[in-house]
Amino acid sequence: RHSFPTRRSSDLVSAFLGMVLYMYPEKNGRHNRPHVHVMYGDDECVLSIPEGEVLAGEIPGKQLRNCADIY
Questions:
Q1: Model pTM?
Q2: For residues 28 and 5, is the Cβ–Cβ distance under 8 A?
Q3: pLDDT for residue 1
Q4: Which of 2, 33, 40, 71 lies at a CB distance of 3.0 to 4.6 Å from 52, suitable for a disulfide?
């Protein structure tokens, strides 16, 4: 199960179409495969980079498709 860390402005990668993307620094020398956290309203998901595969959580389909445009 993927944990969703506390968001900090320094971790902000991008914001567009109501979505906010965050990337967090590696902790304790261990990290999952490359990914971004995407927030949309009260929804949150984790997308792999560069594939855009949903690793955890969910956001509405339209927003997920919009995220695919950045890959």
A1: 0.73
A2: no
A3: 46
A4: 71
